[in-house]
Amino acid sequence: MITSERGLKSEYLKKVIEETSAKNCYEKEFIQALKEVLSSIEPVIIQNEEKYKSVALLERLVEPERTISFRVPWMDDNGNIQVNRGYRVQFNGSIGPYKGGLRFHPSVNQSIMKFLGFEQIFKNALTGRPIGGGKGGSDFDPKGKSDMEIMRFCQSFMNELQRHIGHDIDVPAGDIGVGGREIGYLFGQYRKIKNCYEAGVLTGKGLEYGGSLARKEATGYGLMYFMREMLKANNINLQGKTAIISGSGNVAIYACEKAQQLGVKVIAMSDSSGCILDENGIDISLIKEIKEVRRGRIYEYKNSVPSSIYLENNSDIPSIFTLKADIILPCATQNDIDIEAAKLLVQNGALAVGEGANMPCTNEAVSYFLEHNVLLAPGKAANAGGVATSALEMSQNSMRDAWTFDEVDKKLENIMVNIFRQCKEADEEYGLGNNYVAGANISAFKKIANAMIAQGII
Ligand code: NDP
Fold first, then answer.
1. Which one of 9, 50, 309, 441 has the fewest CB atoms closer than 10 angstroms to its CB?
2. Cα Rg of the chain, angstroms
3. What is the pLDDT of the chain when averaged over all its residues?
4. Which residues' Cβ are closer than 6 Å to ligand 1?
5. Cβ pair 262, 224 in contact under 8 A
6. What does the pLDDT average to over 326-350?
7. How far is the C-alpha of 200 from the C-alpha of 187, rounded, in Å?
8. Residue of 135, 258, 380, 447 with catalytic role
9. How many CB atoms within 10 Å of residue 95?
């Protein structure tokens, strides 16, 4: 269970949570992520309280090393000048160059950037690769924009971002609203400004210019490798189970594909408007055609599969979470599953939840799942396959090499097996009772704390 900050015993921890919450009182997502992580690492804090206090470890951990915010002016197809806001939060570089995606979505603000950057520190530490934590993006809405508008926006965004990144400094990648097309435009502009071919400055690149095979698939595939390991450790067989997946973007599509390869029947997927229920099992090639090729809406699925049902979102609980399945894979956005959705899912017999998205469950929902013995694969561990494979892309770029799909996929699988093992070992060491949320946080925190202490007060 996530200990609420009121139930904490460590005065040091309570003080840091209180002071950071007060200082960032308008940043609700950041405070949510901070409380989730800090509350769950209490056993380690208690063991080392004096040491950590003496170097202000937690106070430094919760403050980004750098937060950059900038203007992004661009011209739309009608000749009008539009102005958006860009961000890059370089949260913690103690383990390696800052690494984390760029999100283009109208909801983007400093709080969302900071929560994602904070989560990324721990996620990246779990991968075992030398990468620090960062995140960036813009409140630009790519929906309905022409290709040329996307290109002009990406170029203007990079005109500023290029000052702050580099293959040994900070290496952005994709996230919501930023896929292969956007990374291509961003990379092109970086190359033009810098007049050098620095392949390792961005990951998620096209295969023709330094991208890695299996990067596109990595987050979704990795999620299912983690899920398989978690169920296996609890004597549950994945094969034959049913699943529902929120979202129908990069993570959701490849989670669905791997789930099906592992013998799971995925019966529903969604977008922000509603979900499609296909009791015969989702046709993933049709979803790819609708979402990756046509950039369409999920309801279009029904035109090709008349026996499927489209359920529009019309209450606080997204329609997909009103459905019954063994495995729940939230792969859309933060806070998709609140306490009410969690209660309904438990009532409907959910066995396990795998967070493909970042922080898709509220802290109350996480506690509810754990209290009701629903196995929970926390995002910062379960969706780490994406960034881990980005690190593999960086390795290939440094070596000027390109590995086969199977080589990368095998490395990804090993990384995910290893991440689950770390979560399980911490869970067992601290007697947490199958709490892989705390297990992931503790395991990652120990590494980051040691690196920060070793490098002195900076
Ligand atoms: P995409 O942009 O490819 O897809 C996002 C999906 O989520 C779309 O189906 C979108 O629907 C839906 N969605 C977005 N915002 C909302 C919202 N406010 N409410 C409901 N649905 C929403 O993004 P990704 O698949 O790359 O990312 C999904 C999640 O996974 C994010 O939380 C991201 O941070 C996380 N993640 C991604 C990684 C990656 O490698 N891409 C790595 C690790 C984590 P619609 O089209 O209607 O907006």
1. 50
2. 21
3. 97
4. 174-177, 219, 247-252, 271-273, 331-333, 356-358, 383, 386
5. yes
6. 98
7. 10
8. 135
9. 23
pLDDT value for 66: 98
State both tokens at 446. 């120990």
| pLDDT tier at 160, thresholds 50, 70, 90 | very high
- Is the pLDDT at 2 greater than 60? The verdict is no
Ligand 1: residue whose CA is nearest its atom 44: 357
How far is the centre of ligand 1, averaged over its atoms, from the C-alpha of 80 (Å)?
A: 29
Give the class (CATH, top level) of 66-199: alpha beta
Asked about 302 being catalytic, the answer comes back as: no
Q: Which helix (H) or strand (E) holds 440?
A: helix 436-454
Quote the tokens at residue 343. Answer: 């209660």
Q: What single string gives the DSSP state of each residue in 232-274?
A: HHTT---TT-EEEEE--SHHHHHHHHHHHHTT-EEEEEE-SSE
Tokens of 124: 């990246």
Q: Which residues contact 208 (CB under 8 A, 6 or more apart)?
A: none
This prediction has a pTM of 0.96
Average pLDDT over residues 191-205: 97
Going by pLDDT thresholds of 50, 70 and 90, the confidence category of residue 5 is low
